[in-house]
Design brief:
It is found in: Cell projection, Neuron projection. It holds the Pfam family AMP-binding. Keywords: Cell projection, Neurogenesis. Its main location: other. It is a single chain. By secondary structure, this protein is α/β, with parallel strands linked by helices. The strands form 14 sheets. Strands 3-2-11-10-12-13-14-15-18 form a 9-stranded mixed β-sheet, with helices on both faces. Strands 32-31-40-39-41-42-43 form a 7-stranded mixed β-sheet, with helices on both faces. Helix 16 links the parallel strand 27 and strand 28. Helix 3 packs across helix 4. The chain starts with about 25 loop residues before the first helix and ends with a strand.
């Protein structure tokens, strides 16, 4: 057994061997060793039985397509940039340039800042820049601590927090830090505690161990404060000391103090922040020599001249804005005009006007600025761009940059713009400037473009696209490699193997002018900054390390560099690569302007069911109609499908301005993705298309024809050492005493016997909502009342022996008396739940139906209910003229019947039990006198019921085991029943529990609805109840009566919540009954505790039971449904072949018991069904025994526990109703399992139900939160069902709470819900048809 073996598990983590050293002579050591061995031992799946088990893989592995294009070129040769020239007057360090210009060119302008209207606000000269930077450096090093203690040392990291509108303050702070030799870390100004990505910035500050932040006075005033006036502690940030750098707060150094300016070395100069695809913000450290070399390379490539003017529209804190507008500009004494983002929003042409006014030679822009200027250019007649020698397009590597550049040129060529000055470039925080197009010579042809096939690109191959214009991507080059650099292309995944010439890969660069590391993160640094490319054999091609740029591209003709995407925008779907930017470009091409905002589209992928799925989120314009939006969405779907040959998983539109923003107004992709996954996106329109894009589902299971016979089961059992899955309760035993036989043969006789022998013994106590006794019944009172009713039946109702009589009563003692009155008169009672007076339209038809189906000769009821049956409101719903005779039993004359009827044989029908199943079927079953007495005897034995005992019942008394406990058991066993109508709990939640405490009840019976009411309603008030003296330590057994799989989560939370009130964790258990046999299991008082097992859900869908450890993936906890009652035999049978099954199979539960029902009542022409359900035989094995089919699936498991006789205990586990199961993709699903997953998907899902509709899975979810959450549920529900059940949801219906119908037993009526859905009566908040 290899324990340290790497196991493929979630997240594929490595498991290490578990070893504990203990001294050899220690007595404990062997015990501990045994324990450790069991912990280490993996759970073995059971031996396969006699079925062929092809361990079906979950995921369908797509077969490789033979037509997939493959790279065919030769391996690429690294590309060299031109040598970096040696210019004599280049400074030895960047600060030295500032010293020089400050001293010799003090009046020369360094920077002009604009105000919000685009007019110049101030100009900072080189002299001022120098003097202020020196003052700041001196202050930082000498004046921050008390008594001039040094707070900062050279090499410490300092955050720079300046708004985009204040480039001058930033410039002084940056150079002040360089002169003080502390390391500036420029970051964005935090606007609120909950900024998008704010805690990630905190991670950056932490990894750089920043404790000091520089800012301006105005900025400091604007930061969010606490009530005390202190600056808010931002989420995830370290504690910072804030220092204001305005001139008036700085100290001028003495004449003798000079900043130390060493020659540039490899120490870090500054740290630039960078956000990764996962949302983490890391700091790229740039050394002093790299900073200087980069400025030199840019100067050479852009041919910068001393004293020229540059207009910068980019963010000066990072990337191109910092490299050109703050660093290279100072090295060359350039005058920078900084145009902040806010000005661009107010006046998009401002940068063009600045170029015109200042005759600038260089402008630094993004495609967005070109686009905006173009939109606004009509307002401007006399601008000239003739002075421009370079228009640097910072995002020229984007797929849509080509069209922006072309369109801009088209508009501004008449304003003097020359085609050859447009210079796209490619950059990344790690490799800095990767390539830039040099300004061309006027008149020479512009470089050619590459028109590539999208299909090829998705396979990472370059193929020229000639035919289909739609699926082509036009890319412009980004010029040549930087001076002094070496570049090659390597495979983006796996080892850095050199690509072939026609293959797309990641650009890696070796240069002195690049980032050095991710500061404070050595592990991540190695994979990015120290890459040595390898050849096809895996051998390194040289010694020199390269830096990964994160850009994907190739080297074209003439060594021009082409970039086709970024690593972080890469979406890997089914082994093909798609670029987020390309998908955005395609979405924008679908005339978006009417429906969505141009720059507000986010594309990302989420992992669902073992593959990446593409999600597109866009901001919708407020004036777009629903019709427009859906049209746009469906066209985007088609466009992306036809152009990129990839299916979208989800397309969501959110209200304008609701997507999380980055500081310059872009979309924060990572936060958007997080919101999508957490259900916080709040879309106003959503389309899910899982059917088209989830292609890796396993093939549907083909059911094998089952030719199983006796031989195979013999062989099977011998081979696998399995036993037939069967179990039995203990024997009912014989009753020797004739007197007892007489007493127990018929319940009517038992009541007469009790009335004679123990007349004043109180059998029943009925409580009201206040916990007060409303009425009681002793044996003799019940007997006399039953006599009165029997007399009334024969006189008023003129009924004959054997007639059916409907009992229509609220839960109480009248119901019980009427039942025995019917038995005394020789009639067959049928208990029916009375209609709800406030909701007759919904509840009266069921009453009418049962009365009609049972062909009742007469109705026994109360005065109140009689009025309701004859009321106008009732007439609006049913025909009230055709009711059978109605007898009101409230005040009957004191008459005795001439005789009390005694049935000639115990096989005669005692009563009919009608109930509506969860599938909406009304079924009545016939219960004979023999079955009644066998059932009561079985319960008496199991629960040890005697006349000295007291039990409390909080159940509906109309059918099943609830009726048996309410009306029959006390008369048989003589114990006292305290009756609590469940309806009373609605007005007084603690009623049931306080009754248990007050009467010190040991045994109580309730329903799931009662348990849920207590858990949700008073689960949080245990302290108050305890203070009132409520104590549940007396309760020995609390049995939930149900006809379903035990609701483990509910029983466990009930036990946990009321543990504080003394409730024993062993007390709560469940019972199980069905239509064919009302009581199969019940925990009882003796015998082992209920056991819980964890089964593998995947196997369960194949009708197999495989036990797994708790917490295993895809495990389902199941609780035993109580002990099998005395006299009951259970066997697990294959419902198709009707052969008995082995232990590890899921099959139908069949019952052999003296208290099974005799048959269905009045299902005409269905005699075969009677025989099939009530008296059926196994197809082989034991062909003589007659069994009743419960219609429930379950399995039997032999446990380690011992029963009363000392044998190993066989536990019965109920999994679900056969009628309710969903057959999807050839597998069997239980709705409750899917619903459990759905309810877990989002905090706002109160309840859910699933059903199928023409092979589609429909999920109905009740929304408990606000309506803006409604559409968030759609993707989450789809994801969770796909992940956990491997099913695609066809329709998601979001409804208000309380829409899912639930019957009196607390079971969901899924078929009623389905009918309402199909009849369009649900009035949903939203219906999503997943395409």
């Amino acid at each position: 057994m290899s324990v340290g073996k790497r196991t493929k598990s979630a997240g594929d983590q490595i498991l290490f061997p578990l070893t504990v050293r203990v001294p050899v002579n220690s007595r404990v050591s062997t015990k501990i060793q045994q324990l450790l061995n069991t912990l280490k031992r993996p759970k073995r799946p059971p031996l396969s039985e006699f079925f062929m088990d092809d361990q079906e893989e979950i995921v369908e592995v797509p077969q490789p397509d033979p037509n997939t294009p493959r790279p065919e070129g030769r391996p690429i040769i690294p590309v060299k940039g031109e040598p970096l020239g040696v210019v004599t007057n280049w400074p030895p360090a960047l600060q030295a340039a500032l010293v020089r210009w400050g001293a010799t060119q003090g009046k020369s302008p360094a920077l002009t800042a604009l105000d919000i209207t685009g007019k110049p606000l101030y100009t900072l000269t080189y002299g001022k820049l120098w003097s202020r930077s020196v003052k700041l450096a001196y202050t930082l090093l000498n004046k921050l601590g008390p008594k001039n203690e040094q707070v900062l040392k050279p090499g410490d990291r300092v955050a720079l927090v300046y708004p985009n509108s204040d480039p001058g303050m930033f410039l002084v702070a940056f150079y002040g830090c360089l002169l003080a030799e502390v390391i500036p870390v420029p970051i964005e100004v935090p606007l609120s505690r909950k900024d998008a990505g704010s805690s990630q910035v905190g991670f950056l500050l932490g990894s750089c161990s920043v404790s000091l932040a520089l800012t301006s006075e105005i900025c400091l005033k604007g930061l969010p404060k606490m009530p005390t006036g202190e600056i808010l502690q931002f989420k995830g940030w370290p504690r910072l000391k804030w220092v204001v750098t305005d001139s008036k707060y700085l100290t001028k150094p003495g004449k003798d103090w000079q900043p130390h300016i060493p020659t540039a070395n490899t120490d870090p100069a500054y740290i630039e922040y960078k956000a990764s695809k996962e949302g983490t913000v890391m700091g790229v450290a740039v050394s002093k020599v790299a900073m200087l070399t980069h400025c030199q390379a840019l100067t050479q490539a852009c041919n910068y001249c001393e004293g020229e003017t540059l207009v910068n529209v980019l963010d000066f804190k990072k990337d191109m804005g910092l490299w050109h507008g703050v660093l290279t500009s100072v090295m060359n004494r350039i005058h920078t005009i900084s145009v902040p983002y806010a000005v661009m929003k107010a006046c998009p042409l401002s940068w063009v006007q600045r170029v015109h006014i200042h005759k600038a030679r260089v402008a630094l822009v993004k495609c967005r600025d070109l686009h905006w200027a173009m939109m606004a250019h009509r307002e401007q007649r006399d601008t000239s761009l003739e002075s421009l020698h370079m228009l640097i397009v910072a995002d020229g590597a984007n797929p849509w940059s080509v069209s922006s550049c072309d369109a801009f040129l088209n508009v501004f060529q008449i304003h003097g713009l020359k085609p050859e000055v447009i210079c796209p470039c490619a950059t990344s925080p790690e490799a800095m400037t990767v390539a830039i197009r040099r300004p061309g010579v006027p008149g020479t042809p512009l470089p050619a473009r590459a028109i590539l096939s999208m299909g090829g690109l998705s396979h990472g191959v370059i193929r020229v696209n000639a035919e289909d214009k739609n699926s082509a991507l036009t890319v412009q080059d980004v010029g040549h490699v930087m001076p002094g650099a070496l570049m090659c292309i390597v495979k983006p995944e796996g080892p850095p193997q050199l690509c072939k010439t026609d293959e797309i890969g990641e650009i890696v660069v070796n240069s002195r002018a690049g980032g050095n590391m991710y500061y404070g993160l050595p592990g991540v640094t190695k994979n990015t900054f120290e890459v040595i490319p390898v050849n096809t054999l895996g051998a390194p091609i040289g010694e020199i390390p390269f830096v990964r740029s994160g850009l994907l591209g190739f080297v074209g003709p003439g060594n021009l560099i082409f970039v086709v995407g970024k690593n972080e925008g890469l979406l890997m779907v089914s082994g093909r690569r798609h670029n987020a930017d390309d998908l955005v470009a395609t979405a924008l091409a679908v005339e978006p302007v009417k429906t969505v905002y141009r720059g507000r589209i986010a594309v990302f992928s989420v992992t669902v069911f073992y593959d990446e799925r593409i999600v597109v989120v866009a901001e919708q314009r407020p004036d777009a109609s629903e019709e427009d939006s859906f049209q746009w969405m469906s066209r985007v779907l088609q466009a992306i499908d036809s152009i990129h040959q990839v299916g979208l998983y989800s397309l969501a539109l959110v209200p304008a301005n609701t997507l999380p923003k980055t500081h310059l107004g872009g979309i924060h992709i990572f936060e958007t993705k997080q919101n999508f996954l957490d259900g916080n996106l709040h879309p106003c329109n959503i389309l899910m298309c899982p059917h088209t894009c989830v292609t890796n589902l396993p093939k549907p299971r083909q059911k094998q024809p089952v030719g199983v016979g006796p031989a195979s089961i013999m062989v099977g059992n011998l081979v696998a050492g399995k036993r037939i899955a069967q179990a039995a309760g203990r024997d009912l035993g014989m009753i020797e005493d004739q007197d007892l036989v007489r007493k127990h043969q018929f319940l009517s006789e038992a009541l007469q016997w009790r009335a004679q022998t123990d007349p004043d013994h109180c059998l029943y106590v009925l409580l009201n909502a206040k916990g007060l006794v409303v009425s009681t019944a002793t044996c003799v009172q019940l007997h006399k009342r039953a006599e009165k009713i029997a007399a009334a039946l024969t006189e008023k109702g003129s009924v004959n022996t054997g007639n059916n009589v409907v009992l229509l009563y609220p839960p109480g003692i009248d119901l019980i008396a009427s039942f025995y009155g019917c038995l005394y008169a020789g009639c067959v009672p049928v208990t029916v739940r009375p209609p709800h007076p406030q909701n007759l339209a919904a509840t009266l038809p069921t009453v009418r139906m049962i009365i009609d189906v049972s062909k009742a000769a007469c109705i026994l009821t109360t005065q109140n209910l009689m009025r309701i049956l004859r009321s106008k409101e009732a007439a609006a719903t049913v025909n009230i003229k055709t009711w059978p005779t109605i007898i009101d039993t409230d005040d009957l004359p004191r008459r005795r019947p001439p005789m009390i009827y005694k049935p000639p044989t115990a096989e005669m029908i005692a009563y009919l039990d009608f109930s509506v199943s969860t599938t909406g079927m009304l079924t009545g079953v016939k219960i004979s006198h023999a079955a009644v007495s066998a059932l009561c005897r079985s319960i008496k034995l199991q629960c040890e019921l005697y006349s000295s005992r007291q039990i409390a019942i909080c159940l509906d008394p109309y059918c099943g085991l609830g009726f048996v406990l309410w009306c029959l058991a006390s008369v048989y066993s003589g114990h006292q029943s305290i009756l609590i109508p469940p309806l009373e709990l609605e007005s007084c939640l603690p009623l049931w529990l306080s009754t248990l405490s007050q009467y010190r009840i040991r045994d109580t019976f309730c329903s799931y609805s009662v348990m849920e009411l207590c858990t949700k309603g008073i689960g949080t008030q245990t302290e108050i109840l305890k203070a009132r003296g409520l104590n549940l330590s007396c309760v020995r057994s609390c049995v939930v009566i149900a006809e379903e799989r035990p609701r483990l989560a509910l029983t466990m939370s009930f036990s946990k919540l009321f543990k504080d009130l003394g409730l024993s964790p062993r007390a709560v258990s469940t019972a199980f009954g069905s239509r064919v046999n009302l009581a199969i299991c019940m925990q009882g008082t003796t015998g082992p505790d209920t056991s819980t097992v964890y089964v593998d859900m995947k196997s369960l869908r194949h009708d197999r039971v495989r036990l797994v450890e708790r917490g295993a993936p895809q495990s389902l906890p199941l609780m035993e449904s109580g002990k099998i009652l005395p006299g009951v035999r259970v066997i697990i049978v294959n419902p198709e072949t009707r052969g008995p099954l082995g232990d590890s199979h899921l099959g139908e539960i069949w019952i052999n018991s003296p208290h099974s029902a005799s048959g269905y009542y009045a299902i005409y022409g269905e005699e075969s069904l009677q025989a099939d359900h009530f008296n059926t035989k196994l197809s082989f094995g034991d062909p003589t025994t007659l069994w009743a089919r419960t219609g429930y699936l379950g399995f039997v498991k032999r446990t380690e526990l011992l029963d009363a006789a000392g044998d190993r205990h066989d536990a019965l586990f109920v999994v679900g109703s056969l009628d309710e199961t969903l057959e999807l993709r050839g597998l069997r699903y239980h709705p409750i399992d899917i619903e459990t997953s759905v309810s877990r998907a989002h905090r706002s899902i109160a309840e859910s139900a699933v059903f199928t509709w023409t092979n589609l899975l429909v999920v109905v979810a009740e929304l408990s939160g606000s309506e803006q959450d409604a559409l968030d549920l759609v993707p989450l529900v789809t994801n969770v069902v796909l992940e956990e059940h491997h099913l695609i949801v066809g329709v998601v219906v979001i409804v208000d709470p309380g829409v899912i119908p639930i019957n009196s037993r607390g079971e969901k009526q899924r078929m009623h819900l389905r009918d309402s859905f199909l009849a369009d009566q649900l009035d949903p908040i939203y219906v999503a048809y997943n395409m």
